[in-house]
Structures are given as structure tokens and as C-alpha cells.
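STRUCTURE:
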């Protein structure tokens, strides 16, 4: 009986460890991102692609601030994430650890071009899809590369949720920390 309990304990620990994602530090997200923007989600739409075999979600974000990269305030970018739900067909697909966006949400996002095969996610076929923008972006670092900005209802301060650290901090501190990391990278 004791051996069964010990075996169960180790199997439980093993299964739990397979379900966790390693934390990506801010300096690594910054270093590996082509663009970092702050903006507002203006739309999010799931579309069937690759001959209706896969569903991807296309999120449009209007940029309020370009932190690094080629975009400027007022530009709109399209971010693609695998998975989504089609309310007409009543079905969809969820891909673990992907960033999820909501309309009217304010976000800071670490982005790269949606090209090639990245971390077992295929973006190659998107270039051949009709009716899609040619300059699609993807979130760098899965859900850890998307941060929600919001006003704290009690303190009225602007806050940001950092999923890679599982904590919420003041937006001003977040921005100061980003500037410091950017200076270290550009020395």
C-alpha cells in the first residue's frame, strides 16, 4: 500500500510539472521582440483557415504608444493567435498558453512577425490565405507577452497585469522598468 501511495505521489508531481510553462523574464521578452506596443483592442474575430481545418483569431489593436519597433501612434496592427470560437458553427479550438484578447481592452503586447513555424505553431500558410493582411503579427512569449492595462477601482491608479510574474504593478513602474531594460540592451 505504501508503494502505491508513493507511486501515485510521483505520478501526480510529474503530471503537474508537464502542465506548467516556464517563466519568461522581461529582459528576454524585450530582447526577442521586434515590436512592443501599447494600445486598445478594437476587434477580435475567429476565422477558419487552411481549407476550413483550423481556426485562428485575428485581433486588431490601435496603437497608443510604440515602445519599440516600426509602428507609430494611430497605426492599427493585426495580431493572430491559434484557436478561437465560431459562434455560427458553434465550435472552435482552444490552444493552451496562447494570449487571449477582449474588445476594448487596453494592452501592452510584445510582438513578432507571424511567419514560419514557431514553437510548434504553423504560420506559413497564412501568407496564402485570401482576405488576410500581409503583415500579421504574433504575440511573443505566448500569454506572457500580453499584458492587460486597467484602472484600479480603489486607488484610481493605472495598473498592469504581468502574467509572466503573476502579479499586478503600477503602469508607471512597469514603464520605468521597461525603459531601464531597453537602455541595458542598447548599450
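SEQUENCE:
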Amino acid at each position: 500500500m505504501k508503494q502505491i501511495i508513493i507511486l501515485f505521489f510521483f505520478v501526480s508531481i510529474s503530471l503537474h510539472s508537464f502542465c506548467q510553462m516556464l517563466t519568461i523574464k522581461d529582459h528576454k521578452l524585450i530582447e526577442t521582440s521586434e515590436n512592443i506596443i501599447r494600445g486598445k483592442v478594437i476587434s477580435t474575430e475567429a476565422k477558419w483557415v487552411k481549407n476550413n481545418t483550423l481556426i485562428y483569431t485575428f485581433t486588431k489593436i490601435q496603437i497608443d504608444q510604440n515602445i519599440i519597433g516600426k509602428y507609430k501612434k494611430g497605426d492599427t496592427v493585426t495580431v493572430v493567435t491559434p484557436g478561437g470560437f465560431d459562434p455560427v458553427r458553434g465550435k472552435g479550438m482552444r490552444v493552451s498558453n496562447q494570449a487571449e484578447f477582449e474588445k476594448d481592452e487596453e494592452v501592452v503586447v510584445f510582438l513578432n512577425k507571424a511567419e514560419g513555424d514557431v514553437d510548434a505553431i504553423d504560420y506559413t500558410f497564412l501568407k496564402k490565405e485570401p482576405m488576410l493582411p500581409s503583415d500579421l503579427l504574433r504575440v511573443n512569449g505566448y500569454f506572457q507577452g500580453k499584458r492587460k492595462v486597467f484602472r484600479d477601482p480603489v486607488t484610481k491608479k493605472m495598473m498592469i497585469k504581468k502574467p509572466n510574474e503573476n502579479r499586478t504593478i503600477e503602469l508607471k513602474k512597469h514603464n520605468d522598468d521597461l525603459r531601464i531594460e531597453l537602455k541595458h540592451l542598447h548599450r
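REMARK: Confidence is low (pLDDT under 50) at residues 4-18.
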